Amino acid sequence: MESDVLIVGAGPVGLALACALSQHGVSVRVVDKAAGPATTSRANFVHARGSEVLDRLDSLGTLPEEAVRAMTITTYAGDRPMMRIKFGDPGLHTAAPPMVISQARVEAQLRERLAELGGQPEWNAALAAADQDASGVSVTLGDGRTVRAGWLVGCDGTGSTVRKLTGIGFPGVKVSERFLLVDARLDTTLDRSGTSGWVHPDGMLGAMPMPGDQWRLLAYDATFPDDERGEEQIVERMRRILPERTGLTDIKLLDATWASLFRVHRRLADTYRQGRILLAGDAAHAHAPFGGQGMLTGLGDAENLAWKLALVIQGRAGERLLDTYEAERRPLATQVLRGSTAATKINIAAGPIGRFLRDRVLMPVFSVPRLQRWATYTASQLWVSYRRGPLGGRGRRPAPGDRIPDLACKRDDGTRTRLHAELRGRWAVLGDHDAFAAARHRLGDSVVLLHPEDESLPTMLVRPDAHLACKGGPAVLAIWLDGTLA
User: Fold this and answer.
1) Cα 317 from Cα 400, distance rounded (Å)
2) Phi then psi for 106, rounded to 5 degrees?
3) Which of 302, 262, 266 is nearest to 170 (CA)?
4) Residue 199 in contact with residue 74, Cβ under 8 Å?
5) Pairing relationship of beta strands 195-198 and 72-77 according to DSSP bridges
6) In whole angstroms, what is the distance from residue 114 CA to residue 328 CA?
7) Are 477 and 484 in contact (CB under 8 A)?
8) Coil, strand, or helix at residue 465?
9) Strands 427-430 and 447-452
10) What is the DSSP string of 162-192?
11) Are 111 and 121 in contact, with CB atoms under 8 Å apart?
């Protein structure tokens, strides 16, 4: 084999998967049909869960310092504020903050981390064909080169070539007509400490501050003509409707760095795996940008898949473990799709009843602090649990499958550390030397012993993605590992 895993797509999901697999000691190769790294922002919000994944990949770097801390959303009708939602850490013990940051910067940080781990993406390398057999996957690239790998993972977006070549269905529906998106500098007195949005009979418009004195402008524009799809036409349209929909006479769009036109579709792959070929990120699920869930969900896919695929490749687990990837991640994608679709329909409500429910019922309700905390909690994905999945369990919290917060811990030599900082391609046993010995017997050197400062916690085995595998003494851990990895 030329590599254990061939990853198609050098976006955030493909790069995160490559970094995670490399941390586990798995050889990877990343190919992408593009000529080079993307420079446009595209996704621009990383919620706390995404920051945690980047932290465990040791790829946060300077992103928190570069990011804009715009953690409020204020919705206006003309100049009248109707609703203000405050986002931030919902008190779930994370050291990784939510960030307003360009996807291009996230990808650059991941490429830097991958380079530290000994890898780099191969550009101008489109996928042309893929055939699998019992021992691996043979791939033909667009330039005629052939590649052999043990496994193939499609992280190549909603138009995934991997998914199409494999014949996996991607059913779904169109949720909305056209949205205009423009990244630009503005001449404005708008507050850069948060996002501003305006409801208008012709469609909503939002303005989010971004690093580098930039703003992300998003507007629903169902009547924008199909024959005016160029960036210049999009920017000019946004320049015209910006004062109309905001009611601000002193706001001006200066120079734009990127413009795009898109429709919202909701799609979900029929399966995430066919033999030795798997899907992750937008190749497996496509949804609306509202709520910033796309990149976030894809990063979670990558981290979940990485440790399972690594164990199979290393001969420490049977292929049955890979079935738990879809079983854990696809229900979450289904839930995210429903939420983002509902948010889209609320934002683009055109009829009088829909606008009344949005403006007179939902907006006042979401001014309640408890519901704002719920919105933060939901968007962060720190709530994600796999307790109902095949690796989950019941009982008092934390139950198997639950996320374990970034606990303050001590190493065996007494030095202080954080749980999530110690995972980074490893498992963690919290609190028991005998349980640690039992875990090492099955997992080898990829496990670390930690002692939580909270001494009331039970002995726990924590997965590399920070979810609880099991809790109990060495016998319990041994039984769980033998059963799960069989």
Assistant:
1) 19
2) -60, -45
3) 266
4) no
5) parallel
6) 26
7) no
8) coil
9) parallel
10) HHHHHT----EEEEEEEEEEEEEEEE----T
11) yes
Which residues sit opposite 72 in a β-bridge?
A: 86
**First-to-last C-alpha distance (Å) of the chain:** 24
Q: Where are the alpha helices (DSSP H) in 181-322?
A: 231-246, 294-313
Q: From CA 302, how far away is CA 310, in angstroms rounded?
A: 12
**Cα separation of 213 and 186, whole Å?**
8
φ, ψ dihedrals at 157, nearest 5°:
80, -175
Closest CA to 239 of 315, 184, 311: 184
12-to-26, 125, 318, 385 alpha-carbon distances in Å: 19, 17, 28, 23
Is residue 142 helix, strand or coil? coil
Distance CA 22, CA 80 (A): 52
| Distances from the Cα of 260 to the Cα of 235, 279, 286, angstroms | 9, 26, 17
State how beta strands 146-154 and 28-31 pair.
unpaired
Closest to 114 measured CA to CA, from 28, 212, 37:
28
Contact between residue 153 and residue 305 where contact means Cβ atoms under 8 Å apart: yes
For the chain, 486 residues long, give each residue's pLDDT as a single digit of tens.
689 999 999 999 999 999 999 999 999 999 999 999 988 878 888 988 999 999 999 999 999 999 987 778 888 877 777 777 776 655 555 667 788 899 999 999 999 999 999 999 999 999 999 999 999 999 999 999 999 999 999 999 999 999 999 999 999 887 666 889 999 999 999 989 889 989 888 888 999 999 989 999 999 888 888 666 789 999 999 999 999 999 998 999 999 999 998 887 889 999 999 999 999 999 999 987 766 788 999 999 999 999 999 999 999 999 999 999 999 999 999 988 887 766 665 655 556 655 556 665 566 666 666 666 767 777 788 889 999 999 999 888 899 999 999 999 999 999 999 999 999 999 999 988 999 999 999 999 999 999 999 989 999 999 999 999 999 999 999 999 999 998
Q: Provide Rg for the chain, Cα atoms.
A: 23
* Total number of residues shown for the chain: 486
In one-letter notation, the amino acid at residue 147 is V
> Two tokens at 102?
């360009």
Torsion of CA 195, 199, 200, 206, to 10 degrees: 20
Q: Which residues contact 366 (CB under 8 A, 6 or more apart)?
A: 83, 85, 372, 375
Q: How far apart are CA 443 and CA 425, in angstroms?
A: 12
Would you call the peptide bond into 398 cis, given omega within 30 degrees of 0 as the criterion?
yes
